[in-house]
Amino acid sequence: MRKLNINKALLPTLIATAVSSVSYAAPALEEVMVTATKRSVSIQDIPFSINAQSQADIQRSGAGGLEDLSRNIAGLSIQNLGPGQSQVAIRGVSAGQIVRDQPGVKEQVGVYLDESVISLSLFTPDFDLFDLNRVETLRGPQGTLFGSGSVGGTLRYITNQPNFDDVEGLLEADLHTVTDGEEGGHLKGAINVPLSDTVAVRAVGYHTEYAGYIDALGEGGSKKEDVNSGTRSGTRITVKFQPSEKLAITPRVVYQEIEADGNNRQEVYNLYANPYTTTRPAIQLDEREQYLLLDESFSDETLVTDLVVNYSFENFDLTSITSYTERDILVSRDASALTGSVSADFGLPDAGILLPSNLRDTTDVEQTTQELRLSSTNDSPLQWVAGVFYADTDRSYTQRLPTPGYDAYGSLIEANLPLPTGTYLAVANGFPANSPYSADLSYTLEQTAIFGEASYEISDQLQLTLGTRFYDYEESRKHSTGGIFSNADPVSSEKTASDGFTSRIMASYDLNDDTTFNTQISQGFRLGGVNDPLNESLCEGNDLATFGGFQAYDDETLTNYEVGVKSKVGSSMTFNAAAFYADIEDLQVTLDAGSCSSRISFNVPDAHTVGIELELKAQPMEGLELTVATSYIESEFDSTVKDGDGNVLGGVKDGNSLASVPEFQIAATASYYFAADALVSGAEAFVSATIQHVGERYTQPSDQVAGAGNFTHGYTFGGAVGDETTSVDLELESYELLNVSAGLINGEWETVVYVNNVADENVNQSFDRERGGKARLGFRTNQPRTVGVTVRKSF
Prior knowledge:
- Residues 1-27 have low confidence and may be disordered.
- By secondary structure, this protein is mainly beta.
- The protein has a single domain (8-794), classed as Beta Barrel (Maltoporin, Chain A), CATH 2.40.170.
- It is globular.
- The protein starts with 10 loop residues before the first helix and ends with a strand.
- The strands form 8 sheets. It has a 22-stranded antiparallel beta barrel.
- It is built from 8 helices and 41 strands.
- 49% of the residues are buried.
């Protein structure tokens, strides 16, 4: 794959040269207002590093979702882990890959839909970006105002609100085709209707058809094309009541449903499809191919209802935010190779190894939150916000492994297990038959917090901000398992609790009307938890001794030291930059527990991230808009963790990189608008291009250990000897994506023709290994070249 060679040491000089060469006679850039400090303020006046992508920015860059958008935001990275599953990191704060069966792991980036928290570790909902006012990225810990889960930063979807002025709306239709894949498209609409001087409604509806592009080989030489197609449908209805100038009541309902028919996984090895078999057809899997015995699917049904009440007193506002979230998630995957690899370990005949096996992970969540806060509104040098927050979350996670006919092999397997015959039967603990592994895991999480932040203008130039948050958290958990692959654990219960303070201090100095320097020391935290018991019967060699000692893990804390500058040059350019150093204590790292078919989390005493972020937005001449966003981040362990034999555990070694975060990332967009009277009288046309570069990274810390990419399956199944080795480069290569578009704007109509991923880059976004690589090896990949047309009609 072609790499972009950039001398990072020259980056500040290059940007400074670009800035000095710009002419500033162009029209003024639009002022962007954000609410990152719980009040509406210009983004240039926020005393810390923040990015805001408007609806126009999203459309211009060709972003179809948050993952696409992240490449245009300095310091933000999102690791694709399959349909509906993504891992968000800001400024290199990353724990490594989290998977479906780690429901107790908390998120490192808090995600909000307006005022309502919606983040859920691995399964943060990927809401449609239509009819958003902006997407705010708050970099660095936001523990004071946003609490747990914002240790790396906070993402906020800010929607357009109802207004009382006019009936207005937008319709958008799209049709596109994917190279070597299917056709897709969407239909979306938004409308604002004032019902009276005091009541207005805004409604949004959308439906998207996702084009598949992954082919699945199967038994007997069969092949299914484009198995990873899917749909996303949803609605958002907001009503605003304003019976007086002082009182505003805004209830809302948000509903979204995602269905995916398969996974964006391209495999390089599968127990059933590899080049080593002799009694079965030898298969070399190609790009965008996988091997399945069973179809896979994903579904996510999300309901968010919230109520925001605001009452304005003479010098302050009282705001109440009540939200209720209900989510039902199902990840259904072909676990035949996983189950087959265990069967091969137990010495089952080929007929037992080839039984189709379906792993079904379900997550059901109900969450209620309540925030009540006061914020000043006068013109005093002292501005403040204070409030209380409460969250109650019930989360149920289950696993079932339906494998018809498997109990017939139970006696053969139990002969190799330590406990008496019958202990491991699938029906133990009340679970269904022919499910060699079943588990129920339920959580109750309760969190209470008190927070406050105050800013004081010491002089016309200097402003000081102090804030703190006290949190009290309790988590209780019940866990039970059954089946031949399990420990047959009866129902067990554990509780964890923590409390403490997280604070920040910020100073902002106005050098002049156009340039402000900021500095801060801020803290963030992520709550700890308890690991699930390992599947002891599956562990081979020393894996049980190595990973079995990790049970509870502590809270993760981070202290951030930062300096930054925000500058306007004339009225047509803004230039924002920040440098930071973050000291992380008890970083929660997740690792693959080898052959145990489990994942564990544990604390690494010390780690750090350090880096710089630069963002430039300019209009150097009439009609031309330029944006550049780049970051350089070093994120490393400062401690070494060893197992009982003195060996470094899972790549957690002083100086090794944290996972999933590119060291260097840059994106640039250029758009040119011009009169198109020659085509349509009074029309305007534009051309736009976005180039994105994302540097190398690893999926999890152990991937950087020497020899980690060499996988020996160890099975004589299918005529393979068992000592054959599949070698994979686990360093995810850097890549560049180019999106281009051209459009015509004629009054209320806009037509855009676009090509995304122009060079048809096949990007390895994360590495997927099943049972430590003994069952399956593959990479999750991106969407191929996509050519399409979008038509918008506003009114």
